From TrEMBL, chains A, B, C, D:
<comment type="function">
    <text>This reaction introduces a second double bond into the aromatic ring system.</text>
</comment>
<dbReference type="GO" id="GO:0004107">
    <property type="term" value="F:chorismate synthase activity"/>
</dbReference>
<feature type="binding site">
    <location>
        <position position="52"/>
    </location>
    <ligand>
        <name>NADP(+)</name>
    </ligand>
</feature>
<keyword id="KW-0285">Flavoprotein</keyword>
<dbReference type="GO" id="GO:0009423">
    <property type="term" value="P:chorismate biosynthetic process"/>
</dbReference>
<dbReference type="GO" id="GO:0009073">
    <property type="term" value="P:aromatic amino acid family biosynthetic process"/>
</dbReference>
<keyword id="KW-0456">Lyase</keyword>
<feature type="binding site">
    <location>
        <begin position="291"/>
        <end position="295"/>
    </location>
    <ligand>
        <name>FMN</name>
    </ligand>
</feature>
<comment type="similarity">
    <text>Belongs to the chorismate synthase family.</text>
</comment>
<keyword id="KW-0521">NADP</keyword>
<feature type="binding site">
    <location>
        <position position="276"/>
    </location>
    <ligand>
        <name>FMN</name>
    </ligand>
</feature>
<feature type="binding site">
    <location>
        <begin position="123"/>
        <end position="125"/>
    </location>
    <ligand>
        <name>FMN</name>
    </ligand>
</feature>
<dbReference type="GO" id="GO:0010181">
    <property type="term" value="F:FMN binding"/>
</dbReference>
<protein>
    <recommendedName>
        <fullName>Chorismate synthase</fullName>
        <ecNumber>4.2.3.5</ecNumber>
    </recommendedName>
</protein>
<dbReference type="InterPro" id="IPR000453">
    <property type="entry name" value="Chorismate_synth"/>
</dbReference>
<keyword id="KW-0274">FAD</keyword>
<dbReference type="InterPro" id="IPR020541">
    <property type="entry name" value="Chorismate_synthase_CS"/>
</dbReference>
Amino acid sequence: MNTFGQLFRVTTFGESHGPAIGCVIDGCPPGIAIAAEDFAHDLARRATGKTRHTSARREADEVEILSGVYEGKTTGTPIALLIRNTDARSKDYDKIVEQFRPGHADYTYWQKYGIRDPRGGGRSSARETTMRVAAAVIAKKWLVEKYGVSVRGHLAQIGGIIPKSFDWNAVEANPFFWPDAAQIDELESYMDALRKSGDSVGALVTVVADGVPPGWGEPIYGKLDGEIAAAMMSINAVKGVEIGDGFASVAQKGSEHRDEAARDGFLSNHAGGILGGISSGQPVVVSVAFKPTSSLRLPARSLDVHGNEVEVVTTGRHDPCVGIRATPICEAMLALVLMDQALRHRAQCGDVGDVSPRIPG
Amino acid sequence: MNTFGQLFRVTTFGESHGPAIGCVIDGCPPGIAIAAEDFAHDLARRATGKTRHTSARREADEVEILSGVYEGKTTGTPIALLIRNTDARSKDYDKIVEQFRPGHADYTYWQKYGIRDPRGGGRSSARETTMRVAAAVIAKKWLVEKYGVSVRGHLAQIGGIIPKSFDWNAVEANPFFWPDAAQIDELESYMDALRKSGDSVGALVTVVADGVPPGWGEPIYGKLDGEIAAAMMSINAVKGVEIGDGFASVAQKGSEHRDEAARDGFLSNHAGGILGGISSGQPVVVSVAFKPTSSLRLPARSLDVHGNEVEVVTTGRHDPCVGIRATPICEAMLALVLMDQALRHRAQCGDVGDVSPRIPG
Amino acid sequence: MNTFGQLFRVTTFGESHGPAIGCVIDGCPPGIAIAAEDFAHDLARRATGKTRHTSARREADEVEILSGVYEGKTTGTPIALLIRNTDARSKDYDKIVEQFRPGHADYTYWQKYGIRDPRGGGRSSARETTMRVAAAVIAKKWLVEKYGVSVRGHLAQIGGIIPKSFDWNAVEANPFFWPDAAQIDELESYMDALRKSGDSVGALVTVVADGVPPGWGEPIYGKLDGEIAAAMMSINAVKGVEIGDGFASVAQKGSEHRDEAARDGFLSNHAGGILGGISSGQPVVVSVAFKPTSSLRLPARSLDVHGNEVEVVTTGRHDPCVGIRATPICEAMLALVLMDQALRHRAQCGDVGDVSPRIPG
Amino acid sequence: MNTFGQLFRVTTFGESHGPAIGCVIDGCPPGIAIAAEDFAHDLARRATGKTRHTSARREADEVEILSGVYEGKTTGTPIALLIRNTDARSKDYDKIVEQFRPGHADYTYWQKYGIRDPRGGGRSSARETTMRVAAAVIAKKWLVEKYGVSVRGHLAQIGGIIPKSFDWNAVEANPFFWPDAAQIDELESYMDALRKSGDSVGALVTVVADGVPPGWGEPIYGKLDGEIAAAMMSINAVKGVEIGDGFASVAQKGSEHRDEAARDGFLSNHAGGILGGISSGQPVVVSVAFKPTSSLRLPARSLDVHGNEVEVVTTGRHDPCVGIRATPICEAMLALVLMDQALRHRAQCGDVGDVSPRIPG
């Protein structure tokens, strides 16, 4: 199942070290202005090879629009985007062609399909997420232009480090998408030490959508939060998803959690902008847990395809903390979910109406 | 979207206080022995009205099989199950017909559809989950008979209380699905005090599937964990889902998290049985965060449908901790996901094969 | 696959001689006024037992609305409709429980599922189409109220008899949905003779949708004509579907077939209102070929479930020409397709716009 | 909706005069041997520019495999195929950029999307069908290797000309896929005269699948014949589809139509291999009606995008009979439907079993 979305459908293809990766976007509204250059900004935010804190692989990530756009505008027909892979170094993987790397999908792909492309992790590589970010560029554009909906994200934890202050303006000004400018030095040192140790660490990403109108989401099995959860969990290395207060709700009292409202608006947002699977008009807040990268220089025990016990050491180029670059990917998935739900909402209920009373978000 | 699943498709219908609830199960393999009595056990585990710690509503929950079963066996045609509502007390809701209860879906349904059935929460009531449990009875039966897969669950936290020891045998022997028999008195007292206070509390449920063969799950957008996340998040009051170590992974090192393997089997299960979206053969472990019930006797501020500020007090019959009865519902959703993925796997790859080497789970 | 439609989704269930038949309609727009009585008219048009020219089975076909309607209006949640079977006479089928009736689905269901419900044809009975007609009542209502789209149909051929004149007013005034009032006596005699002979005959049904706005239909694999073809072919006994001139196009020249247009409108409608899979604004015209009923009193050669050769004679109650009652069923399917496409169109392109120039239909 | 199939899902993209056309095949079983050369044969059968009886456009139709194949075998991940357009002559279309060509999709795309790519018909061009033929190469390979199912087709009528004898061996030996070698001269003359006249003509294509096991097809709304009808109707210029005797069934008696069976096999195949939407084990026989090409040198009345009446003359390069090259396209669609149904069947019912008794096809 390589298609995401019910009505704004993104089908991705491509392996880490194959000739190309790409996607087909089907169901896109006509008339959206889009050009190849529009993809550059978000793809660069996701790209490796720009700081020493991410993998050294450098891909140009140049997007070719193969269809669906005429004279600079979407036509309603499928939009195919293509990116050639240019910096794959498959020989890095020679050693592990026959080994199942612990914590990786090597063994499970092998068990499922009886065959796998081991070069760079093949289809299970995070290289695939490039196309999600590309597709979401179109979704983000439509969401903001048509409904004033914007999506942004930040890192909320690396290992044991948590932001001490919060400033959206800081987020894009450092390589960690970190909201506290005063902690950047600490993070640099932490990551340098981690890289030297050959180990890796997990991370927490938070994404927020502002301006979402009330009413998006399809009960019961197409709930907004349900689809967000699936979307985030589909990202490589994700082990948990929560909406609003999430797991903290477990220890809360009802009198504390439920968000009261007055004519001026809601008095809190423990729910993270979603009630009964439908957006409330408050900001949609999602947090995503990333496990530490499994590709380590530190040796580990495993088996090979012949059933022999082996000691696996992963060289190649890897992120010591995959969560860092995951921020734009989480944004992308949230944007794709919202775009899809927007179309589904107007299919059943017509465009966003003026149902009253409207509680300010 | 009231259908769950791609190939084992469960479509539910019905409102809390409507004449009936029901479901249609499509895509079910033929030849499964099933009778009306088979549903009783799991429905009773989910039912209210059996202890003072859940809602006082008492429903007979008698299942009528309307189609798809002939001479005691499924025929491959759609199976319709029907349960008449018998203990709805809609007049409890008279006061709130025009009020938006904080933390409930009242406002969001109103904004989405411009109309809502306020009786007992209408479609957004957890009454709907009865049919998930019913449908999962068939899935559980098939999974265990055909593949030896079993699904079970337990409560892992209520408010701030955490089990001090763990025993699967204890779980079904108390009304809390609690794994530590020694804490039952404490929980009873806690819940009694909570109920008297008019407040509610959150809970954590953990469900585990044993015997899942390696290879189930469809990368990239139909991953086993992605579909589990969506499934759990579709349950009323859920605010978070995690697989294996989940959010704890954020603070872990890669050397700690990645599960090594030897010929005798995996050496740990931080991954919760899923790698790259595909089952590894280890137990699938899922934890689900439930928020505290929003229906409280304690007054709260909100608006009514005319835009006036109101003070909402919820009488009616409610669970002080919805998470308690959620254990069989979480099991049901996990079973439905696994059944669906089993069918999807054999569609693409044929039946579960004997790909070697197989690492013991 | 017992669900029809992508966004206006109708899932039917039930066997010919089971306790009930029913359907769940999901994705229905909220706010449509609907009551149990609304179904009576179209169900009566489809019903057997009203003239000697159809099967003698008499079903009350009383619709119970189980969900999705509150205070007389659809709420956007799934609408479940239930009809109890009251006049099933399963003992008529005793003889053929173990026989494969020629021209029936007995053998193919057996081969597919390894089990079948033989009573009255089980799931393969045309009894199932009752629910299509019921579901389409809601679709027809919405289509005419919101867009002014109306759907109607008539019989266009029985055996070798073809209408000599055409009058829509005649169609509902005779039991054959026949457009030429002067031929009714001829048809009565023909059908009486046929019934006495124990044989059956095929028929041709034509359905027309007026007022369809230009723009409905989703290229390439969700074309309006593609979905109509699937919809019609899903009806029992259908062997062919054509749009507009259909098979007659084979012998036509391009200069004859292509519909020219002037400012006042199109100059012809060979295309049957669809070009490139999208409605043109002209009437949508569909013809459907029904094979003769396979249930005959005349003996035929076949096998039984043990592999023995047998002589099959079908008693029971059957239509000598299934095509007659098929007219409202074909209308229903056309309405369901149009409703679904209307929702899909407004999802991607917004509501029906005022793209100019608009050529009168 | 540019995706065909439920489990073997083919998503196509690309415009007639865009940089490329392509497709993504998702859900393909792993382990199928496939190479770029495998596509050449069928693509050549579909290609234009090879005889004077088809359009003069000459495309190399070289397939690049972008993903999903590793060391010559499918891996179970999405297979992306790309063909660059090399012989598009968009200036041929300058005149009609603002005109709605009669019988074409120009007007309906304009009305649906408010924008259209007029170059060569854009997305509505039959150029798209190239990718169906490419995708079906994989399906055909799997069907024949795994189940012994083969698909082939022939032209059954051009204008008023009908084959006088039938020989499968003749079909591939002439440019018309015509089964009667003795008529080729007549057809050549007919087509030459037609081309000179500037007019076009319709055609009838028949495709047959041999070796289909009994049991494929999903009642009620995923019937084998329903999906075939949709598949064929999705091909450019198709106006009608019939299974087995099709429209001829209208004038038949039941005693004539129903296919009797003996231990040695079925005694006839009026049903065209499908009963109740499920394959019977007999050959699946489908006929498809193609309208005459609408692109003519003969002038026709229409409007332009400003609402002015215009006289349209189509130059460019066109087929005087689109039905001729449609034979491999119809084969492709039948193969895609069968492959998809094969996967769906084994999902629900397991692999093709040995249900007895089996009636020889």
